[in-house]
Amino acid sequence: MFNQKLIFLITLRFLLISVILLATNQIVNLDTSLFLVIPISLLGVSLGFIFAEKGLKLLALGTISILAIIAYQLCFYLLNFLAPSSNLFLFINIFTHLDLLALIFIINLWSAYLILRIKSYATAEVFLILVACLTFFSLHQNYRFDLIKIVNDLAWQLSAPPLGIITGIGFAVISLLIAYLFLLGNLSIEKKETNLVFNQIRTERRFKFFNLGSIALIIGFFLLITYAVFNVHQGKYEIAVQNGVGSSNESGVSPLNFYSALGGSNQPAALVRLENDYLLNPHSPMMYLRESALSQLKKNELVLANQEYDLDVPRTSTYQTYVRKVELDNASARQEVVQKIYLLGDHQLAFGLDYPKTIRPLRLQNKDHNFKGAYKVTSLAPTYNVEQVKELQLGAKDWDSKTWEHYTEKHADPRYQELAEKLTTNAVNRLDMVLSILNYLNNNAIYTLTPNHETTKDQDPTAQFLFGDLRGYCVHFAHATVYLLRALGIPSRIGTGYMTDFSQAKDGHILLRMSDRHAWAEVYIDTIGWVPFDTQPKQVESHAETPVDQSLLDNLIDSLGNDEEIINDELLDPELKESKTFETLLGYLQIKKVLLIISLILLIFYLIKIYLLLSWKLSGNSEDKLKKIYRTLCLMLQDLGYPIRSGETKLDYLIRIQNSFPVVDQELAKVLNQIIYAAKANPENRSMEKLLQDFYHSLNRKQKILVILNPNSIFQIKSK
Amino acid sequence: MNKIILIFLLLLPIFASAQNGNNEFWDPFDLNPTTDNRDDQEKSVETLIREASVLIYDQPLTARSKLTVALKKDPRSILALNMLGNYYMTNVGHYRLALKYFKKAEKILFEDFGKPPYVDYRQQLLHSEILRQLGAVRQNLDLYQQALDNLNEYESYGYSDPYLQSSRAWIYFKLKQPEKGIEEAKNGIRAGSAIGNNLNILGILYSVIGEKEKGIQTLLKAYDFEKSLGSYGRSATPLNNMGEVYRELFKEDQAANSWESAVRLPDGCEHILPSLNLAVIHIEGLRLKLAEIALKNFQSCFAQYPLKNNEEHQSLLELILARIRYYQGDPASAITHLQNAIEHQQWFGSIGTDIADLQSAIYSDYSKSLLAYNNQLRTTPQETFLDKLATWKKIFTNSIQASWYNRKAKLLLLSVLNKFEDLDVRHTDSLLDYPSLGFYFQNLPKSTARRVITAQEKLDTRPNAKFYYQTYLAFNLAQTGSKEEARQILQQVINEPKIEFDQALKAQALAQLIPISPESNQPALIEKLFKTQPAGILNNNLKFPVNSEGLPTELIKLLEQTNFDLASGKTTQFKLTYTSDSEAEYLTLRGPNNYLTTVQGKDNLSLIKNLIKEIFTEYE
User: Who has the most CB within 10 Å: A188, A559, B3, B73?
Assistant: First the structure.
């Protein structure tokens, strides 16, 4: 009854619609069964194409649609009268589903009809789909991947970075639409009806580029773009999403960034499990998990000092054992708190409550999880109270002058000194000074993730913040606090890591997100140690505060098994083990990447190759088919080592190769010349097809393999 | 729950000796079992369990860690598994994990001692405890049929528990089999077990089947009984339920009194419901500040349960907060709260309502808030063309979302919730915002709406409920062309003195009435709405008449884009005056009864935005 190509067209369209519906259902949950939605779409698509193919006019379809809508409404009103009062709600319920089905049916009917009727409709439709996708996925701007639930879910299920998922989705959507357009463009419905778009497609030059080779190249091109986009953003994302707080273990370097801080990401970074109660937390409900400390002033920023300083910071990787060698002389106001930290994102350095006594990697027993590693930290966590702190001296009594200088080194800009002195005029003691500075920042500065300061390399970004518009984020606040404190001779530094709200924890499990990355000022207090003095600005322009995903937290708690420590033997040299592991890991990742790229390029080449070898089978036009058979034959010969030479005619070429392949007939060249140069040709397709098949069968096994696998001919298509 | 833990702890020695190969017996009279300074890894399983059972109150995390170490040492320790399950159920509220531990304990019990029934008393105790815990945790997970099966199985082995009947009656209530529940509760009372609990559930069930007065009397008995138990009694529960029945009977004062008393009781803090109900009734009366205070009380109550996180009931809390923001004229915040409500998990095992009730309420409020936000966007002046474009885009996407969520809510109400049982105004399980429920009727055929309302009015004869149903019908009539009839109904509703408590309904009725009233009547009605709920003007895109004579032309141009009606404002008593000085510009609105408000701004636009916020909204 139907033309085969029409059936193919319906199938193609139906497949696209099904993919769209499945994706939509995944994202918004249609609430109406897909077993109803998909068949109704098929019906709409089929009728749309059939109406178009039968030549139904636009006006006629419009009339039919309006009549159908009226009939539907009438039916609704009629049934409404007939429905018994006891089942009235059931009736409304059914029609609520039917409304959606009717809408889907009408959309499919019209879109299918218009594809065959209006030349640019298919392009416009694809454009609309792209716009819809872009609008939906645009929520990810500023690296807020967590705002798109499906991206988050997929990233979680596949244990892949959300950036990879979103670029992957982008690539998949574009490839799908290109493939759809290509297949659509290669169909021609052989019907005498003149006004069908697809009857004209083959003859229009602008559609010529739609061959599989070019499509594969376009897809390949998009793949490369996707890969490049992923790589470009990966670096930025690492810094940007972490409130400007990166990670580094190199002395003289700062992991902080003054210019990029987009902190709203809910992306999970780690799960912290407290193994015992920490009831005397002086910062409750907040908890500071330190990763590193910056105490050395280097021009306009604080950087990691050399190993002589900040001995309380382990500077250990997450898979390395650490045992504190230096005994703390200030352990009195501290309590032992054991934390198990399960990493969900990449971390260079181990973090934990200060001061870590030991860090030991853990072997995860349950393999069905998303954790990238785990370790156990035993810390001597602070338990001092505010009153206790007030009575103590700032700085350690036993520090030598070099250490004092190190932690009180002032910024060269005299304005810090002036401001600090101005702010602390009424301070009774040095602790009062600290609080005066914090109060000033809390009351006057504005917390924003987009301070948009324009600073050159030589300028001081903290000065721009502090003596400028007072708009900044934790990095600015922490630097400003430390510079002002040091201007008053108060030993201070910046702590970096995570700050989390323990009230969002469950059963002692804290889900750290990227948005919890933080930098804060610390002051050394005699007999207690480094104490965080963090700012809490009253004016908040943008904030990273989002509720913890409780179902995720529940799932993570569920997935934790009983973990065991990898290394119990403290004497084992951790350094050696670490570097080897790291190198191997790096090498493995690099090889994997290269292999992936090579495989993808090869895949694209062979898709093109398969198309070139078999495209004549798809052709409905006799002349075109003949040309393609000829092209296939030439390509085969090319791959067998018989390329066409420069200036050689087709006839000369065929004569040349006839010696090696007697099957190749001179007739082929003659017929082809007729097609190209004569106004009307009468090619004998069947004999040409037979010639091609005979040629292929005449080849030995080695030659056959060469014909299939040699990609050389792909680069020579034009010269034929 | 504390009693259960106490009983459980007393039974620990017997459980401990029921374990295979466990020779170390726990001495319950050892008052200081935590003096063992050895590392946990070096201690025996029994020592760890014993220490955990003592520490579970003050240092729950340490206790949990000890139990996990015990389990690591002996993965087949039924006692450790059971205690961990109990810890997750009681201390953390992580029911799924608790279920996992209980099921594992049950499996090991069967493997070690074979299938029940057991002859050995200690094995019987272990089995009965696991079954009871399984029933409780399944109930918390909303798995009512399975919970019922557990309790029936529990009884079939001859195990006894004073709470058996009341638990089963509660489950029957959740399974919508109130008659069976009543029978069960009565059996419980006859048997003299957990009388307070049984009376309480009996009162609820009487109310569910329509015997409200009988329900109140029974709940009063339950309250008296619990009160007689002194500090052990849980009198807040029947008081809360009594309040709910009073609310259904439109006795708002008594309902509010009950809930206020419940919140003040020692166990009142454990319940979200009195606070939540109090907030809802304040919202219905448009006493929005009081509603906020009620919710804050609840939040501070829950701060005592740090391990549970603020997750428990967070969805409910976000929903009610959103509703307050909506009526205060801040639909943007309402939307954020509702998005949070959608994201959060909520279990209903111990609450009368269920997940579909919550979802339908969240979706319908979400839809309503999106539309209100659109209305506000439409009347917010935009500076540039790009701003206008962005606003149009937002309005478009909000409209689609609003209709989508409205559809979702409708489907839930019609299918899952027993053919829109929540239409019964102030239905005890429902969380819907009844004053604005008329939105559902707007798109129905007139005859359908009429038939639904007529049928409902026959079923529900409460006089005050009638005003609600009539308002819903008027929503439909106004939309389907019968404006005159709609006008008459709405006029009746707003002039009805009986709905003094239902200010939110009155505001909704006024908002519907204004567009279908003759133009000459509109200013007076709008002023009435302004007095009832100022934000109603913003949320419903209505125009507030003001006299703008003497204002600068630029300001007038901007005002024309907003909710101010300058054309018909000449006759109104509300007058705007403009002043400025070197620092800022000022707008003052004067009205009748000494109404006076002044705002300032840097420029015209900020001045107008501040004015709108000041006079039409009630949020800080």
Answer: A188
Q: Which two tokens stand for residue B161?
A: 């528990």
- Does the CB of A551 have a partner CB in chain B at under 8 Å? yes
Query: Is A118 in contact with A55 (CB distance < 8 Å)?
Result: no
CB-nearest partner of A557 from B94, B414, B448 = B94
Instruction: Express each pLDDT in A309-349 by its tens digit.
Output: 888 888 888 888 888 776 665 656 788 899 999 988 778 88
pLDDT reported for residue B25: 46
More confidently predicted of A469 and A593: A469
Chain position carrying tokens 């050892």: B30
CA–CA separation, B251 and B462 (whole Å)? 11
Span B404-419, mean pLDDT? 81
In whole angstroms, what is the distance from residue B283 CA to residue B315 CA?
17
In chain A, which among 76-105 make CB contacts under 8 A with chain B?
76-77, 80-81, 85, 88-93, 96-97, 100
- List CB contacts of B219: < 8 A, sequence separation 6 or more: B199, B200, B203, B204, B238, B239, B241, B242, B245
CA distance B363 to A434: 49
| Chain-chain contact of A77 with B445 (C-beta, under 8 angstroms) | yes
Any residues with CB less than 8 A from the CB of A18 and at least 6 apart, and which?
A38, A41
According to DSSP, the residues that pair with A518 across neighbouring strands are A497
- The mean pLDDT value of chain A amounts to 78
Q: Report chain A residues whose CB lies below 8 A from the CB of B367.
A: none
Q: Let me know: does A230 contact A178? Beta carbons within 8 Å.
A: no
Give the number of other CB atoms < 10 A from CB of residue B71: 22
Q: Determine the pLDDT at residue A608.
A: 79
Contact B474, B512 (CB under 8 A): yes
Angle between the N-to-C axes of helices B236-248 and B273-284, in degrees from 0 to 180, rounded to the nearest 10: 20
| Residue A506 confidence (pLDDT) | 82
* Interface touch B311/A506, C-beta < 8 Å: yes
Which chain B residue shows the shortest CA-CA distance from A276? B62
Residue appearing with tokens 């003497």: B550
A277 touches chain B (CB under 8 A): yes
More confidently predicted of A492 and A205: A492
Higher pLDDT, B571 or A521: A521
My answer on whether omega of the bond before B117 falls inside 30° of 0, hence cis, is: yes
Contact A335, A275 (CB under 8 A): no
The SS3 of residue A390 is helix
Which chain B positions have a beta carbon within 8 Å of A77's beta carbon? 445, 447
Q: pLDDT tens across A398-435, in order?
A: 888 899 899 999 998 999 999 999 998 888 777 888 88
With residue A520 as reference, give the H or E element that holds it: strand A517-525
What is residue B426's three-state secondary structure? coil
The overall pTM is greater than 0.90: no
Question: What is A417-476 written as a DSSP string?
Answer: HHHHHHHTTT-SSHHHHHHHHHHHHHHH-EE-S-------TTS-HHHHIIIII-EE-HHH
Relative to beta strand B575-580, strand B585-591 is: antiparallel
Which is it for the CA torsion A671, A672, A677, A678, positive or negative?
positive
> Does B414 contact A554 at a Cβ distance shorter than 8 Å?
no
Task: Find the range with the poorest average confidence among A274-283, A455-464, A570-579, B332-341.
Answer: A570-579
Q: What distance in Å separates the CA atoms of residue B50 and residue A640, rounded to the nearest whole number?
A: 82
pLDDT (0 to 100) of residue A289? 92
Tokens of A340: 């198990």
How many angstroms separate the CA atoms of A493 and A533, rounded?
A: 10
